[in-house]
Design brief:
The protein has 408 residues and is an alpha/beta fold. The chain has two domains: 3-270, Aspartate Aminotransferase, domain 2; 275-407, Aspartate Aminotransferase, domain 1, CATH 3.90.1150. It is 37% helix and 13% strand. Bound molecules: pyridoxal-5'-phosphate.
Length: 408
């Protein structure tokens, strides 16, 4: 099946028992068991089934299966948020004394999380992910993973996933990619060599901004060295699914960062139109970026523009478009604020991936906990506005920007 067909007809197409065209919401915390023996088997991973929704639920499983197909992986674990997914995935294979090598262009919340890791003895080395010599130099025998975003939010750098996978694999460590901003519509990181993919499904997957969630998808191809990852040894019997088995039997269930069945339902519904929405939003973003570039007093950053430092990499990594996020530098924080206040269609919201166009001033909000150097490395400036372009009629978006820019 091709992309849009798979979104409608792949894994979990509705409910076999009743013919319902949508997977029902199993709004139940727990499930009856046929017998005590069956229950014992369930807990020992020796029988399929459901026991308690923190660990698994049919609606959630349907969403996980569709995410696995979407990202071309082996298995997925849905979590309470994108942040929960990043936390669980990384802590699943790290312990005190370990190091991780990550991109400077990450989402502000993720940078904050890596500072929280310090209290647990996990040290983060931030590097420009496109400087491959720096990435190699940052890796040592304590390093347990490389982490980057396909398209950095809001740096809008594009990671050369194939090259990074080769560097990570040479060092015997996995590459974990946050694919939130690109989504599988633009690229499937697992096909390019990444080992684990994370999505904040609060964004493009859900599509309508009606619920928070995140998903970890396991490619199942990484060869775990059990000396280097002692915690994985116990899960060797699960073969290709060792990473997911460890997660499900450990940190994920014990931290309790489960997704609600209702949210899984919203996501299953929302993701049916992922292809259509991305096609429109990417096309709108390219048109808006090109239009704004004509203003001499504005600097536009968008991977789809030839002026972007990451245009070449974008052409290699992304298909069907360049994403729907643009950042613009307008000269001063004051001007940024008056432009934001003046726009009528684009709303001030700290979110991306909505059907509606959203604007934010990252420096004073999303990245407010970052140091000045961290902001600089993440291309976050005082005069910068991030635009998450929606699926409105592009003429209306352009007219709104033109009117405000004439007044400011
Ligand atoms: C929003 C976002 C996250 C965090 O996801 P939540 O669902 O808000 O917890 C992580 N990474 C990226 C790239 C994001 O845009």
């Amino acid at each position: 099946m091709r992309f849009n067909t798979a979104l409608l007809h792949s894994a979990a197409p509705g409910d076999k028992a009743t013919g319902a065209t949508l997977t029902p919401i199993y709004q139940s915390s727990a499930f009856y068991q046929e017998s005590a023996l069956q229950h014992e088997k369930l807990f020992a991973n020796k029988a399929p089934g459901f026991s308690y929704t923190r660990i698994g639920n049919p609606t959630i499983a349907a969403f996980e299966d569709r995410m696995t197909v979407l990202e071309g992986g082996m298995a997925s674990v849905a979590c309470a948020s994108g942040m929960a997914a990043v936390s669980c995935a990384l802590l699943n294979i790290t312990q005190a004394g370990d190091e991780i090598v990550v991109s400077t262009g990450l989402y502000g919340g993720t940078i904050d999380l890596f500072h929280d890791f310090e209290a647990y003895g996990i040290t983060t080395k931030f590097v420009d992910i496109n400087d491959h010599e720096l990435v190699k130099a940052a890796i040592n025998e304590k390093t347990k993973l490389v982490f980057a975003e396909t398209i950095g939010n809001p740096k809008l750098d594009v990671a050369d996933i194939e090259a990074l996978a080769a560097i990570a694999h040479e060092a015997g460590i996995p590459l974990i990619i946050d694919n939130t901003v690109a989504s599988a519509y633009l690229t499937q990181p697992l096909k390019l060599g990444a080992d684990i993919v994370i999505n904040s499904t609060s964004k493009y997957i859900n599509g309508n901004s009606d619920a928070i969630s995140g998903v970890i998808t396991d490619g199942g191809k990484f060869k775990w060295d059990f000396e280097k990852y002692p915690g994985m040894k116990e899960f060797k019997v699960f073969g290709k699914l060792a990473f997911t088995a460890k997660l499900r039997n450990g940190l994920f269930r014990n931290i309790g960062a489960c997704i609600a069945p209702q949210t899984a339902f919203y996501n299953l519904l929302g993701m049916e139109t992922l292809g259509l929405r991305m096609e429109r939003a990417c096309s709108n973003a390219l048109k808006l970026a090109k239009h704004l570039e004509e203003y001499k007093d504005i600097t536009v950053n968008y991977p789809g523009l030839e002026s972007s430092d990451w245009h070449e990499t974008a052409l290699k990594v992304l298909h069907n478009g360049f994403g729907a996020i643009i950042t613009v530098r307008v000269g001063s924080k004051e001007r940024a604020f008056s432009i934001m206040d003046g726009l009528k269609i684009s709303k001030i919201v700290s979110n991306i991936g909505d059907t509606k166009t959203l604007i934010v001033h990252p420096s004073s909000t999303l990245n407010v906990h970052s140091s000045e150097q961290e902001k600089k490395d993440a291309n976050v400036f005082d005069d910068m506005i991030r635009i998450s372009v929606g699926i409105e009629d592009i003429e209306d978006l352009i007219e709104d920007f033109d009117r405000v820019l004439k007044e400011n």
